[in-house]
């Protein structure tokens, strides 16, 4: 069975994702779509709107065959580590094709850019340093360096978020020396070029989340941008848990942590650079909300995303040492859900699998899963107090979703 | 000016405290009453009902002349360290008499017990070990050891909480070799023997707090047990802060801490004995409330108070190392309030004081005050979210209360 892999967050699953899913299957001509999906915390350093279990169910309902978890040590990282983790897991689980959306939409341009980088590594890195010294953020510095060194139209614009990720996917495939074919579909054009997805049916996940928060969980504004299956799952979650998760729910805990931890403890946290520890403590003393806090901490030197990721690691108490120990490779694959096809595929795959497939937490004892467990524990505390225990227990008791055809 | 010292928590100040205060002044014939009062966390390992500032105001309103803070490193300890800290601070601030309430009520019996202990140290300690091996708690084992070794009526009953404290005060005075005269007044008899304080006007602080919590802050049940000044301060605090502080307000933070901290981090916390760290983590995973949590953690081996103190140190992230570094002596005196007489006394005292009097936090830079600051920060987080900042700022901005006569 031929499998295509996709890398997703589904926060939440919307019509744009449905298009990506359908195109991935069609262009790759694969029998199986495998999604590697971030767990409770996401790449922008945010808690997911709803838990990984509910988001896996959205994916399966929309036709994904297998959903596996992208572990915390990859899911909450900048593009290179994120991509490395996702690609190596998809490779481990046997995906021979990777399909991603990008602003560029031309896979040849990704190869060209990668080749160009190989040939001009030193010049390129010098230029990035120079750009950053002039006050640019890392993504802007990277993007500018490329444009300055090769003004041909075949260099992709690395200031665009999905191009950055795509580039890192292609690079990871190259670095790992694996036999995986990357394909890309144009992302921003989806809404305009396809009859079935007009601008009346496509909205970004960001705007969907914003609507959910401002309307207090009402779906009326967003119903046309999400499949019915997503709507049902969102509705069910909100009825049970009375809220969606967001940073403000975790603010009291982040504040508490910053007010009791010592400078030394904070300096050991992943992504807390020297000097930042005092800055975040002072900000925590002064701030009334997470938004307040972030605007006090923010400087030109760090992107908002970079700081949010740091806050996530402070919140989950993820140290530099433990992150470095386990982010080199994925030693397990956590299964979040599958359908009949997915099950058939996995039964075949298991015969020659080289890393364990974790369906139940109690059946895996590797120390490398501890960050996922801790992330789920902390994530549960952001629920309304009366629902915390239920969310907490989910990490231990929820079996992978199984969806019959 | 002759000063008598008293050791208090005033949680909250009630008629029994008023009696103790009046008797202390009368029996000692002192010009000045100085109270050393626990800060935000108390000897039983609990957050105080209301902040130290409001409790200091209660004390001044009732006639105490000077209120100073018993630092966290003494206030949250078992009787010996608690007493050592309180007595040495009172000695530093020039109190020549110490007046405490006790179940015994006979100061001679405290001396007799202390002398007896000196002469029979080895036998006594052996007996305690034996008793504890048989499953007794430390206080019971101590009390039994005494009774077994000297059945004379001059040995005080050290299973009674105020006798234990009193004994440790007398012992601390003796150990420090200071010139301070201890006097005691019978505590439980106060309600029965004095006309002005019948059982209709005396209730324990515990029952007063219980009433405040069960009635949702109403004073009608407790008005006859507290002075009007206390009633006004309680009423004002509840109107502003919408609650009184108690462990359940801190439970989400304790739970969060137990779910993110590593075993190693917890083992470094003061009073977390080896093996307890896993027990508390498992209990935190299962419990829905602080009460739940405590009943899961509780074993015969540890008293409820001992475990609550441990929880307080976990909550405030107080390590074994930092506690041991600063609990040997008090290097500062933090002033919480005074009246005219108190001010006159302090102006005299300052001329030959050997440790600094801290009126403003910004004027003292010793590292040894950090536990008080951290305790106040964490204490503030237990307030309703909209009141957290106000309570937090109090630690930095509140000057000592000054009450004119």
TrEMBL record, chains A, B:
<feature type="coiled-coil region">
    <location>
        <begin position="107"/>
        <end position="134"/>
    </location>
</feature>
<dbReference type="GO" id="GO:0005524">
    <property type="term" value="F:ATP binding"/>
</dbReference>
<feature type="binding site">
    <location>
        <position position="187"/>
    </location>
    <ligand>
        <name>ATP</name>
    </ligand>
</feature>
<feature type="binding site">
    <location>
        <position position="162"/>
    </location>
    <ligand>
        <name>ATP</name>
    </ligand>
</feature>
<keyword id="KW-0436">Ligase</keyword>
<keyword id="KW-0547">Nucleotide-binding</keyword>
<dbReference type="Pfam" id="PF05636">
    <property type="entry name" value="HIGH_NTase1"/>
</dbReference>
<dbReference type="InterPro" id="IPR008513">
    <property type="entry name" value="tRNA(Met)_cyd_acetate_ligase"/>
</dbReference>
<keyword id="KW-0820">tRNA-binding</keyword>
<keyword id="KW-0963">Cytoplasm</keyword>
<dbReference type="GO" id="GO:0006400">
    <property type="term" value="P:tRNA modification"/>
</dbReference>
<keyword id="KW-0067">ATP-binding</keyword>
<comment type="function">
    <text>Catalyzes the formation of N(4)-acetylcytidine (ac(4)C) at the wobble position of elongator tRNA(Met), using acetate and ATP as substrates. First activates an acetate ion to form acetyladenylate (Ac-AMP) and then transfers the acetyl group to tRNA to form ac(4)C34.</text>
</comment>
<comment type="similarity">
    <text>Belongs to the TmcAL family.</text>
</comment>
<keyword id="KW-0694">RNA-binding</keyword>
<feature type="binding site">
    <location>
        <begin position="7"/>
        <end position="20"/>
    </location>
    <ligand>
        <name>ATP</name>
    </ligand>
</feature>
<dbReference type="InterPro" id="IPR014729">
    <property type="entry name" value="Rossmann-like_a/b/a_fold"/>
</dbReference>
<dbReference type="GO" id="GO:0016879">
    <property type="term" value="F:ligase activity, forming carbon-nitrogen bonds"/>
</dbReference>
<protein>
    <recommendedName>
        <fullName>tRNA(Met) cytidine acetate ligase</fullName>
        <ecNumber>6.3.4.-</ecNumber>
    </recommendedName>
</protein>
<dbReference type="GO" id="GO:0005737">
    <property type="term" value="C:cytoplasm"/>
</dbReference>
<keyword id="KW-0819">tRNA processing</keyword>
<keyword id="KW-0175">Coiled coil</keyword>
<dbReference type="GO" id="GO:0000049">
    <property type="term" value="F:tRNA binding"/>
</dbReference>
<feature type="binding site">
    <location>
        <position position="101"/>
    </location>
    <ligand>
        <name>ATP</name>
    </ligand>
</feature>
